[in-house]
Amino acid sequence: MRTAIAPSAPRASAFEPALLRANRLFESQDLDDTRERISRVMQPHHLRPLGRPEGGRSHMDFLRLGGIGVGTIDFGEAMRVDVEHVEDYHLLMFCLRGNAQARVGDRALDVDVQRGMVCAPGARFVADLSADCEQFVLRLDRAMVEAHVGRPIRFDEVLDLRRPAMQAWLDQLRLLLTSEALMDAVRRHPLIALEMERLLLRLLLDGQAWDDAPLRAPSPRAAHGASPGCVRRAEVFMQAHADEPLRLGDIAQAAGVPVRTLLEAFRRARDCSPMQYLRDMRLDVAQRRLREPQAGTTVSAVAMDCGFAHLGRFSQCYRARFGESPSDTLRRAG
Known about the structure:
The protein is α+β, with helices and mostly antiparallel strands and 334 residues long. It is 43% helix and 22% strand. The protein has 3 domains: 149 residues, Sandwich (Jelly Rolls); 58 residues, no CATH class; 56 residues, Orthogonal Bundle (Arc Repressor Mutant, subunit A).
């Protein structure tokens, strides 16, 4: 799948990941120390100062959220970064300030606060950073991406933050890194962390150009034969693990079929996706808890425990399934 880049779009708003500042990994004036500290959370790479007029003080902020790593890097001086091949993750980078001239594989890119880049696993990445450049970097583990999507994908190298289609992703990323309440929920609740991981990836897929292998639909005969068994196995697995963080790939593995086969089987047998089925299963759990509340039970606590980070979204899904708001259910139980 490939989405077209709009020729004109509004200017990207300022992005300041305030909560990352509380997760400072290091500060250093020693280049070898800087290289070693960054390598521990990213990968081995080469650094070469471009000028060293006064010498710079570097820093890195970094936070790991499931299969997503987010961070900032500032070398305090003009620097060339050379990564021979990006390891088992997709690398996204844009500038919080300053600029860079980057090469991703064979493609030359200008990077600044409005334009970023994406480097695929296995590709080479080289960037010349301006002295005032502070990078914002994300690493999306390849296994995590494939577990959610169900197949290998390759993003387009150009990350245009001015595109209207990218604004929802950028806004959600900004909210995560500025809202203490949301960040606290993500850190305390594994289900919320997984849903945030899935949401950020889904919004990126919706806004950023990407390719995958041509989809080959299974034959009707094969899909029909796979449906009853794999759907039942998936349902049993989800029932037993509904309170755990589950990705689409986890469910397909438990069902013993490829993700595409499972998706087709659920479409035929249940007229929904496995993840929609799991969401409804968790809503059923939420309803039982609200119908039989313990002392101190609140709608927000039940929503969080069942994997819903956004209370409004939880209420919307709950009403669509049960015909009333969660607060109405809890009120009647009291």
